[in-house]
From TrEMBL:
Belongs to the UPF0102 family. The lineage of its organism: Bacteria, Bacillati, Bacillota, Clostridia, Eubacteriales. CDD domains: PoNe_Nuclease. Gene3D superfamilies: 3.40.1350.10. This is UPF0102 protein RBI_I01111. NCBIfam families: PRK12497.1-3 (NF009150), YraN family protein (TIGR00252).
């Protein structure tokens, strides 16, 4: 298990939950229905799966403390994108009808345990393998 300097797993999970809760609230306020949180299959996880107007949004949430050395957006690199796409494909296998999907990214910035800023990127990447 990798550890980041100064932040243990429990603190990261707590920060991640704050970020995910904020993004769920944002999505609901914008007319989305939350279908699933933390959908997990072997090799991948999707933080939030939401639906609006017959489009399923697979949302990757990255939460960082204000002043972090790397941005939340940088963390969703091509390797992470491939894992998300593969996990989304596993989710869609169980569907009876074809669906329109997209991949969104939410970057949440915390300060003293509270959401300072939330940036939401619609269709942040596509399913083509880079």
């Amino acid at each position: 298990m990798q550890r980041k300097m100064g932040i243990d797993h429990t603190q990261r999970r707590k920060a991640g939950n704050i970020g995910e809760d904020a993004v769920c609230g944002f999505l609901v306020r914008h007319g989305y229905e939350i279908i699933k949180r933390n959908f997990t299959v072997r090799g991948g996880e999707i933080d939030i799966i939401a639906e609006k107007a017959d489009i399923i949004a697979f949302v990757e949430v990255k939460t960082r403390e204000h002043g972090s050395l790397t941005s939340a957006e940088e963390a969703v690199d091509p390797v992470k994108q491939r894992r998300i796409v593969q996990t989304a494909q596993a989710f869609c296998k169980g569907m009876l009808e074809p669906v329109c999907c997209r991949f969104d990214v939410a970057a949440v910035e915390l300060e003293n345990g509270r959401v300072k800023k939330l940036r939401y990127y619609v269709n942040a990447f596509d399913a083509s393998m880079k």
